[in-house]
């Protein structure tokens, strides 16, 4: 562990130094004397639970907050940004988690929005703009056309466009990335990391803010841990995850997970030689093939697999949100055959589903906490089409304390909540219907470690009352610590059913088909 500001022999002097940074909002102290140094050509990860001070520190660094205590130096010269534009002028650019892009415009128009090259000082010079956009896009790769409409691009491509936008006004000296991988697939994360490594090789310093601890060692050089508004340590990015967790929350990784439960004898979900064939096959949608799987009451079963393994697709099929198609084999819920239909039909059979994209396919972002929480249970809460306020209050009294949702109030806008609390609202919406089988797809994506632990304990407590859970996650340590069994999928097929303490290398080898044989426990 190295003190902040210390530079080992042979390393370049700091590019950015922050000393004694403090900030309070009213009576709430967000930062308490934080010291931070950023070196040229490094990826410096910044981690901490929600409320630890990451966003406030980032906003000071990027010029969004100008009123703060302490000093900031850029290349040895004291500086205080009055606005994000002021920071951008000296080479400090930011890509926020909520991408600052206009979906209906082309990539080129997004890159130069408000700074379009013009002819005669009046007309937009489209040929010049497209030529310049092409040159910028080549720096981030990915084969993105400047004429493509941003809203038609995959999320990973939009992330690349947002980075290209930061590069369009000149090479930044410091690029701040706020939760850049929160909603990306494994392949899109790998592509983003290629872009980051390319920028790092050019001497650009990257400030990488993330909740995904497993990514830190893959892309980072150093990591600073914030807790309760203080920088508690700056350590090498190779620091073991167990130690990072201890620095984050003051407890061990094992402490995040609740004790294992006990499965009951009754089978909640049974798949026998189950397959699903979409009427219109797509290379990006991996159909399930010949699945044999049982999930019992009180059991949490984890779906493990690489990109394209079919984890999400299996959950979508069971909930009725898959593309239209034909099923074969047998699928039963509580011993009764299930015919794949619609989400409404699944809900009626006691199946609940929490999708991986909480904003794109889960939350109604223009509505309040209450409206989002009760959305799946309006019929029970209504009389002849009128929502009854008393029933809603009863639902809130049940849900808010149990879910530990932190919000200004039940009527607060859903987007005013942190990612972890938004996720708890989405889970709570389904739980209000009291399902017997819960399907979870990446339930802790973009969620801080404290909220993750709350979700683990909540779902385990529900499993103890008889709920069966089938959960897909790209975080193997999460599945190993949380689940009772691990089911490995590869190319839509189930290749192994393993205990959670199986060697992670063996699990990944099965998922990747590297000199392994199929096995069932």
Question: In words, what does this structure look like?
Answer:
The chain is an alpha/beta fold. Among the domains are: 102-170, no CATH class; 267-520, Rossmann fold. Helices cover 32% and strands 25% of the residues. It has 17 helices and 25 strands. It has a seven-stranded mixed β-sheet, with helices on both faces. Strand 7 (118-119) and strand 8 form a beta hairpin. Helix 4 (126-140) crosses helix 5 (155-167) and helix 5 (155-167) packs parallel to helix 6. The longest helix has 16 residues, at 186-201. The chain is globular and about 70 Å long. The model has no long low-confidence stretch (mean pLDDT 86).
Give the CATH architecture of the domain at 267-520. Answer: 3-Layer(aba) Sandwich
Global structural class: alpha/beta
Q: What value does the average pLDDT take?
A: 86
> What is the helix tally?
17
Q: Which sheet architecture does the biggest sheet show?
A: 7 strands, mixed
Uncertain segments are none
Globular, elongated, flat, extended or rod-shaped: what is the shape?
A: globular
Count of DSSP E strands? 25
Q: What is the CATH top level name of the domain at 267-520?
A: Alpha Beta
For the CA atoms, what is the radius of gyration?
24 Å
Quote the beta fraction.
Answer: 25-35%
Q: Strand order, main sheet: write it out.
A: 18-21-22-15-23-24-25
Helix content: 25-40%
Short description:
Its main location: membrane. It comes from Streptomyces spongiae. The protein is an alpha/beta fold.
